[in-house]
Hints:
- The chain is an alpha+beta fold.
- The protein has four helices and nine strands.
- Strands 1-2-3-4-5-7-8-9 form an eight-stranded antiparallel β-barrel.
- Helix 1 (12-22) runs antiparallel to helix 2 (29-38).
- The mean pLDDT is 84.
Amino acid sequence: MPNAADDPSTSPRHQLIAALRTNPRDPTIPNLIAQVESDSTVDLREQASLLTGVWELRWSSSSQPWLKQAPWLENLQLLDPARGRGMNLLRLSGPLGGLAAVAVQADLAIEGPHRVGVRFQRGGWIGPSLPGGWRPELLATVKQSFPAWLEITSLDHQLRLCKGNAGTYFALLRRDDLSLDALMPAPAQDA
């Protein structure tokens, strides 16, 4: 008879992913995050490709409303470290999500085994994709007066845990159903 302790579905990682998917307000999430982090080894010099993709914020320690999970809102983080770019994208869930979003574009740099440097560049409104691939944008330059970074504390193909430069903890799940290239237009030099 198999031992219940050997069942991967009882692991803290599995429990955390399940809670993030079904109940992001579950009070056990901070404890599960601590357990998963204690079992994790991250080296972005070897694992940077795991960062690439669309991630959805499912939990944060912040009290800011735009950093809280809500069923009617998708809080997405698009990461493309090979091209040195990223974007935070806040949009409505469901069919209206593609009509408009609030976005902040950033330059990214791997700064060691655990840290991603973030330099915010432009932020504002992004409209829907129109025929011919054009998307209207109203983006203004962001004046970032401080260094920003994410300390990656756990990373795999499905789950990313990290801490921001302001001390906020984040738990994100990969969204394989969304395309990085469709959501984050190529910079002018790549187009």
